[in-house]
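Please go through the sequence and fold tokens given here and tell me how the chain folds. Record follows.
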Amino acid sequence: MFHALADPGRRGMVDRLSEGPASVSELARPLAMALPSVVKHLAVLEAGGIVLSEKAGRVRTYRIAPGALSALESWVAGRKAKWNRRGSAPGAGRSSAGC
């Protein structure tokens, strides 16, 4: 899942899909990349369990997978709880000047 969300273009597609389902061409429209590249990025998102697709005729439509980010949220919550129990939450004891 982290790999799928590592690319800014894929994160942009996820942002767009959070508004509702969209076709490949709708997702490609605001991006500066060829349609085959968009399809490859969508395949990475689908393999990561973040989006689902369905094909109706010649149009493939993508949507956010239900609970797509639940695994990520659970992982982050688990790490955060562990850090808090140890008293070493990320950023604790560090000044924000170096960030």
